[in-house]
Design goal:
By secondary structure, this protein is an alpha/beta fold. The protein has one domain. Helices cover about 25% and strands about 25% of the residues. The protein is built from four helices and seven strands. Strands 2-1-3-4-5-6-7 form a seven-stranded mixed sheet, with helices on both faces. Strand 1, helix 2 and strand 2 form a beta-alpha-beta unit. The N terminus is likely disordered.
Length: about 150
Amino acid sequence: MTIQRRHLLALPLMAAGVFPVRALQSRTLVEVWKGPTCGCCVDWVTHLRSSGFDVVTHDSGNAEARQRLGIPIAYGSCHTAQVGGYALEGHVPVREIRRLLKERPVAAGLAVPAMPRGSPGMDGPAYGGQRDPYDVLLVQKDGSARVFESYR
């Protein structure tokens, strides 16, 4: 077992009862492939980080990652991610990512096709508060999909 530096620094506080052991649990890692200049991708990554995820980004390879992770181009968006063995395509809200990881359905992952205004990363001041209705799709391993959650 590898002990991270932050864990070693916390040991004296744990011994004193100041620092709860559960605080040492690793945060969930999300790996993201995106374009190097995409602002909404950066905003989605910020959404993930502010919600407690650790995120590693790659400024290329979106199409390759989408294909490798089994998400059909019909459900494509501007970035592709992987978390807990699942693909995330597009502006998937953290609430649905957490639900996916809790329920663990047999599936390729979640997708928010296109780039709907009001979805995480597409909700900044540049969009003037505009909101499009959209669905978060649960993409099956055979490429079919069903609605996982609707945002109206």
